[in-house]
Amino acid sequence: MQTRTLGTTGPAVSALGLGAMGMSDAYGPTDRAESVATVHAALEAGVTLIDTGDFYAMGHNELLLAEALRGRDRDSYVLSVKFGALRGPGHEFNGQDSRPEAVKNFLAYSLTRLGTDHIDIYRPARLDPDVPIEETVGAIKEMVDAGYVRHIGLSEVDAATIRRAHAVHPVADLQIEYSLISRAVEADVLPTLRELGIGLTAYGVLSRGLISGHWSTDRAAPGDSRGFVPRFSPGNVEHNLALVEALRRVAEDKGCTVAQLVIAWVAAQGQDIVPLVGARTRERLTEALPALDVDLTADDLAEIEKAVPRGSARGDRYPAAFMAGLGVGN
Ligand SMILES: NC(=O)c1ccc[n+]([C@@H]2O[C@H](COP(=O)([O-])OP(=O)(O)OC[C@H]3O[C@@H](n4cnc5c(N)ncnc54)[C@H](OP(=O)(O)O)[C@@H]3O)[C@@H](O)[C@H]2O)c1
C-alpha cells in the first residue's frame, strides 16, 4: 500500500482511505457483518485511514468501528472523526454545534463509543455560523494538549476559514468533496491548502456512487438520502449518467473500471490528496483498491477532461438546505 502524508504536520496514511458512513447511514439498508468484514479487509490490504462521524446514525457508526477495530494495535490505523452535526430522533439534521463546551462533550462520547483514549484527527463536520472558528479550534487544541486528540482537521470550509483555523493551531487536513464532477475546491481552497502545508482528504470521489459506473436511474431505494440530492433527481441523473458512459469508454481503453478511473483521477491531482472511498462491501473495496495502480498519463487526463469537462454535471451536490452550510459550491 502506498502512503501519503496529510500536510506538513499530519500523519502518514494509506494513499486511499475508507469512509465508514454508508455502513450505518445515508445509503439505505446496511449489513453489519459485511461492514465489519469490509473494515477488516481494508486493514488487511494496508488501508490505515478510517473516517467516521459521531452523527453517522447517531453513534451507530462509531460503535460499529469499535467492534471492527477491537483487538487491533491502536497505532496501526488512523481514526478521523467528525463531530458537531445535530440530529433528531427522526434522523433529521438540525444544524451544527461547535461551541467549546460542545466540542469536549462530543469528544467524550466519541472516545467512549470508539473505546479508545485518543482520536487521531478530530474535525467539526461543518462551520457553526454562531461560533468563531478560533473558539472551536481553540477547544480542540486544548484536547490536543490534554492528549485526547492528535491532529486537528476541518471539513467543508472556505479558504478564509482555513487560514483563521490554521493561525490558532496547525491543521493537518481538510476533508471536502472533490471529484471529476465536484471541482469547486480547485479555485481557492486547494491553493490555500498548498500554501499553508495542509493536506486534503477527498470525499464524494465517486459522487456517492453516481459516477462509480454502478448507478442506474432506478437505484435510489426508500431511506436512501441520494433520493434528495439534486444530481440524482429525474432530469439531472440521466444527463449525469451520460457523462459516466463517456468515462466508461476511457476506462475500457485504459483497461480499468469507471470507479477505478475516477478514484485514480482524484489521486492524480496531487500527492497531498488522499481519496476516501465509501465502500460498504468487500466487493466494492476490492474494486476500489487497485485504483492506486492506475497510472494516468497526460493524454489520459486530457481524455478524461474531454469526457467530463469541468462543470458539466447537472444539479447541486447537496439539497438546497445543505448547500448554505458548505464552504464552496459545486
Ligand atoms: N466531510 C463531509 O462532509 C463528508 C460528507 C460525506 C461523506 N464523508 C466521508 O466520505 C466517505 C465516503 O463517502 P461518500 O459519500 O463520499 O462515498 P463515495 O465513495 O463517493 O460513494 C460511495 C457509494 O458508491 C458506491 N460504490 C460503487 N462502486 C464503488 C467502489 N468500487 N468503491 C466504493 N464505493 C463504490 C458505494 O457502494 P454501493 O454501490 O454498495 O452502495 C456507495 O454507495 C464517507 O464514508 C464519510 O466518511 C464526508
Strand content: 15-25%
- The CATH class assignment is Alpha Beta
What count of helical segments does DSSP give? 11
> How many domains would you count in the coordinates?
1
Question: How is the largest sheet built, in terms of strand order?
Answer: 3-4-5-8-9-10-11-12
- Give the total of beta strands: 12
pLDDT under 50 segments (min length 5)? none
Secondary structure elements and pairings:
Elements: E1 3-5, E2 12-14, E3 17-19, H1 32-44, E4 49-53, H2 60-69, E5 78-83, E6 85-87, E7 93-96, H3 100-114, E8 119-124, H4 133-145, E9 149-155, H5 159-168, E10 171-177, H6 189-196, E11 199-203, H7 237-254, H8 258-267, E12 273-277, H9 282-288, H10 298-307, H11 320-323
Parallel strand pairs: 3-4, 3-12, 4-5, 5-8, 8-9, 9-10, 10-11, 11-12
Antiparallel strand pairs: 1-2, 6-7
Helix pairs in contact: 1-2, 3-4, 4-5, 5-6, 7-10
Commentary on this structure:
The chain is of the alpha/beta class and 330 residues long. It has helices at 32-44, 60-69, 100-114, 133-145, 159-168, 189-196, 237-254, 258-267, 282-288, 298-307, 320-323; strands spanning 3-5, 12-14, 17-19, 49-53, 78-83, 85-87, 93-96, 119-124, 149-155, 171-177, 199-203, 273-277. The strands form three sheets. An eight-stranded parallel barrel has the order 3-4-5-8-9-10-11-12, surrounded by six helices. A two-stranded antiparallel sheet has the order 1-2. It has a single domain, classed as NADP-dependent oxidoreductase domain (TIM Barrel). The protein is built from eleven helices and twelve strands. Bound molecules: NADP nicotinamide-adenine-dinucleotide phosphate.
